[in-house]
Amino acid sequence: MPDAQRLRIETAQRIAADIAENASDWTTARAKAFGELKSDLGHIPAGAVPSSAEIESAVRAHYDLYCSAEHAELLRQKRLLALSLMESFENVDIFLTGSVLNGCAHADSIIVFDVFTDDVKAFESALLDNGIEFEPVDSPRSNMPDPLESLGALIYRRGSRTAEAVRFDLRAKSDRSRNPFRRKPDAHQQPWEAQGRIATEQLRAVLF
After folding, report:
1. Is residue 100 part of a domain?
2. DSSP reduced 3-state for 206
3. How many domains, in total, are found in the chain?
């Protein structure tokens, strides 16, 4: 295996371990790993920087190796909460996306939804109608156009005192055809987990 490829794999594994074991955010984990690589070698070799897809796959591999059953249950609970939220909205073009869908989530990961609408106020009203208090939050930069608005909330599971953080990224309807997070599924995913976003009906079908 070429040295650059080996380093890329090892760096992806190092980043993945930091994310999975320390609940580090991805930007911090990347910066830490690249800093360590530069400190060890004096530079970062060309071809040694893993892609986002390679890091995601390394995170899933880490969970599968060290805590497969526990992580599967964590994902199921987050996905069930996501589904219950999605089902509470009528006539809303809403999708689950992000790490809870693709299998990279840890306990503190935010449940992220894409909502395609040109009427931000209407969706804010829908949140209030469902008894969900929200506030504007920042959304990480991505290959998608910036959302019209990002709204954060804390949601409690039924019978639980533990709150889950959720974020609704409100996006223009014209951006619905864009899906830069669709991947080819790896060995640690079902095909639906790699499709970038999932609608209510399909999520219900795969969970039950």
Report:
1. yes
2. helix
3. 2
Please indicate, yes or no, if residue 67 is contained in any of the structural domains: no
How far, in Å, CA of 100 to CA of 31, rounded?
23
pLDDT at 158 over 90: no
Six-digit token string for 152: 């954060």
Q: Based on the domain organization, do 45 and 83 belong to the same domain?
A: no
Average pLDDT over residues 182-206: 97
pLDDT at 2 over 70: no
pLDDT, tens digit, 9 for 90 and up, residues 10-23? 999 999 999 999 99
Contacts of 68 (CB under 8 A, 6+ apart): none
pLDDT tops 60 at residue 1: no
Q: At what angle do helices 3-22 and 26-41 cross, to 10 degrees?
A: 140
Quote the pTM value.
0.93
What sign has the CA pseudo-torsion 45, 43, 16, 184? Answer: negative
On whether both 27 and 85 belong to a single domain, the answer is no
In a domain, 58, yes or no: no
Do 117 and 173 touch, CB atoms closer than 8 A?
yes
For 154, the domain range is: 73-207
